[in-house]
């Protein structure tokens, strides 16, 4: 029977590239797989140190990363993974498994080193680690509070927002069974009941629901939560809750309500101010008329060169001014009584000009009218709208300061049911600071005695009472355009017009 050295055959049949080393790391044998893989001949490796051949290094590997040294000390098989570069530059991960071969005395005679290429597995592991890390980051950085507990109520995960909301640190909460204490009594049970019912988003799900949680200091916090059961192989393994703190929303709602209350109080104040103004205006109107008539009569009778003629003239002018203010106050307080009639807006604008045309203020001002030829039927109080247009046009004339243009455009958008009226002037424009305040009552930039600041406030409330809107469409040092939007009256077959 032919004999063969089975030891050598055994060595050659190992599935991984393998080296046999002396305790001083000198290579005494290399398997064929090793030689083929690394492209060496037996001669080239025998007698060389393992690190010279494996890593082209002149010094041994560090103690901690060398499995051979450990095997020498422990006399047990050991392994470690090393990232290394092949001469081609390719990066690989190698699992280096080292088994000591002991002699009769139990000392390490030789070491067997198998090198296994685990690059694919290692890269996959790194990829999974990265994905895990990414998912963890998403959960950690979510602004919604996320909490996961197992079926016994032991906390498994609490992200940063949840820690802030519930007031627990990771150390205290994770691993302890506190889930039940995070809700008002019976809360946790009710969530579980809903989660298992098909009625709240399907079995295993709970759609957004408002409830109260309790933080670590015992404070009750209103939240909006959604929850779900996590299943593994069809079995319930955990529950996950996502919470949004409702306190900021409730705070904003409270502030809004408070603002509305203040606004209402303010408008009540304005209403009583209006009544007061109406009373005062009414009382002052008659004596003012008396002063005006008497002063005008005296002025007429004075000689041309009378020394008091100028003073008398001033009295007449100032009394006229007082009457204007009184008229404004009366108009402002009378807004409550709105009449309802139908008219064409173009006619109302024309009527306004009939009043204003002869005013000295308009002597050097060119008025351009670009009216729509369609019927701009509006329902409301004609006299109040005359007052609106008068205030806007006088403001424009003041802004122009004597010379320039005022253009009035009217149009309609029938499908939208709107009438548009634009007033453009070539005046000084409205400053950025004044713009948000121009509709406020008593806001004026005009010198004392020239403006009461009631004009635009009155305009706005009349327009709004007619279901319309007014805004500054544009303003610059070259001029200003006000845009008024009013509802276009819908003519039906039964409407008499
Ligand atoms: N067309 C305009 N161009 C520039 N500024 C304007 C124009 N219209 C209004 N303003 C500014 O808005 C302010 C408020 O106007 P508003 O009509 O309410 O009051 P007033 O004209 O100052 O006084 P009143 O109208 O009561 O006599 C004005 O003082 C002015 O600064
Ligand atoms: Mg005005």
Please describe the topology of this protein.
Layout: H1 6-13, E1 18-21, E2 27-30, H2 32-38, H3 42-45, H4 50-55, H5 67-74, E3 78-85, E4 91-102, E5 108-117, H6 119-141, E6 145-150, E7 155-158, H7 160-166, H8 170-173, H9 187-196, E8 205-214, E9 220-232, E10 235-245, H10 247-301, H11 309-333, E11 341-344, H12 345-356, E12 365-370, E13 377-380, H13 382-400, E14 404-413, E15 418-425, H14 455-465, E16 469-476, E17 479-487
Parallel strand pairs: 12-14
Antiparallel strand pairs: 1-2, 1-5, 3-4, 4-5, 6-7, 6-10, 8-9, 9-10, 11-13, 14-15, 15-17, 16-17
The structure holds adenosine-5'-triphosphate and magnesium ion.
Magnesium ion is lined by residues 391, 394-395, 451, 455.
Description:
- This protein folds into four domains: about 5-120, PAS domain (Beta-Lactamase); about 140-245, PAS domain (Beta-Lactamase); about 250-330, Orthogonal Bundle (Helix Hairpins); about 340-485, Histidine kinase-like ATPase, C-terminal domain (Heat Shock Protein 90), CATH 3.30.565.10.
- The longest helix is centred in the middle third of the chain and has 55 residues, at about 245-300.
- The chain has helices at about 5-15, 30-40, 40-45, 50-55, 65-75, 120-140, 160-165, 170-175, 185-195, 245-300, 310-335, 345-355, 380-400, 455-465; strands spanning about 20, 25-30, 80-85, 90-100, 110-115, 145-150, 155-160, 205-215, 220-230, 235-245, 340-345, 365-370, 375-380, 405-415, 420-425, 470-475, 480-485.
- It has 14 helices and 17 strands.
- It has a five-stranded antiparallel beta sheet, with helices on both faces. Strands 7-6-10-9-8 form a five-stranded antiparallel beta sheet. It has a five-stranded mixed beta sheet with strand order 12-14-15-17-16, covered by helices on one side.
- It is of the alpha+beta class.
- Bound molecules: adenosine-5'-triphosphate and magnesium ion.
- Adenosine-5'-triphosphate binds next to helix 13 and helix 14.
């Amino acid at each position: 029977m032919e004999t063969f050295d089975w030891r050598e055959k055994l060595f050659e049949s190992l599935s991984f590239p393998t080296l046999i080393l002396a305790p001083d790391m000198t290579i005494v044998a290399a398997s064929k797989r090793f030689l083929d893989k690394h492209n060496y001949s037996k001669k080239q490796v025998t007698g060389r140190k393992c690190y010279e051949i494996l890593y082209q290094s002149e010094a041994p590997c560090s103690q901690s990363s060398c499995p051979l040294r450990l095997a020498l000390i422990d006399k047990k098989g050991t392994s470690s993974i090393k990232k290394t570069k092949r001469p081609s530059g390719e990066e690989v991960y190698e699992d280096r498994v080292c088994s000591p071969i002991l002699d009769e005395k139990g000392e390490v005679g030789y070491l067997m080193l198998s090198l296994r290429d685990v690059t694919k597995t290692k890269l996959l592991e790194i990829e999974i680690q990265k994905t895990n890390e990414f998912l963890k980051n998403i959960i950690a950085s979510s602004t919604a509070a996320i909490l996961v507990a197992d079926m016994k109520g032991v906390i498994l995960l609490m992200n940063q927002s949840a820690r802030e909301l519930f007031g627990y640190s990771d150390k205290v909460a994770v691993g302890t069974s506190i889930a039940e204490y995070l809700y008002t009594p019976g809360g946790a049970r009710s969530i579980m009941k809903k989660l298992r019912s098909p009625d709240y988003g399907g079995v295993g799900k709970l759609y957004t629901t408002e409830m109260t949680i309790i933080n670590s200091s015992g404070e009750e916090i209103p939240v909006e939560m959604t929850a779900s059961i996590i299943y593994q192989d069809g079995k319930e393994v955990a529950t996950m809750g996502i919470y949004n703190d409702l306190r900021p929303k409730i705070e904003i709602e409270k502030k809004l309500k408070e603002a509305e209350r203040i606004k209402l109080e303010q408008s009540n104040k304005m209403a009583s101010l209006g009544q007061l103004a109406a009373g005062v205006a009414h009382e002052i109107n008659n004596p003012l008329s008396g002063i005006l008539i008497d002063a005008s009569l005296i002025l007429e009778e004075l000689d041309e060169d009378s020394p008091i003629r100028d003073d008398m003239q001033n009295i007449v002018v100032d009394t006229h001014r007082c009457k204007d203010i009184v008229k404004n106050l009366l108009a402002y307080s009378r807004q409550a009584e709105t009449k309802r009639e139908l008219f064409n807006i173009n006619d109302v604008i024309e009527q306004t000009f009939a009043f204003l045309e002869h005013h000295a203020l308009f002597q050097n001002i060119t008025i351009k009218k670009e009216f729509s030829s369609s019927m701009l039927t509006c329902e409301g109080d004609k006299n109040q709208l005359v007052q609106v247009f008068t205030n806007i046009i006088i403001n424009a004339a003041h802004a122009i300061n004597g010379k320039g243009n005022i253009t009035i455009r009217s149009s309609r958008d029938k499908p939208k049911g709107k009438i548009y009226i634009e007033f453009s002037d070539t005046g000084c424009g409205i400053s950025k600071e004044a713009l948000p305040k121009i509709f406020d009552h008593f806001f004026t930039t005009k010198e004392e005695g020239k403006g009461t600041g009631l004009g635009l406030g009155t305009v706005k409330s009349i327009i709004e009472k007619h279901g319309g809107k007014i805004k500054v469409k544009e303003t610059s040092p070259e001029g200003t355009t006000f845009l008024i939007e009013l509802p276009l009256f819908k003519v039906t077959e039964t409407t008499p017009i």
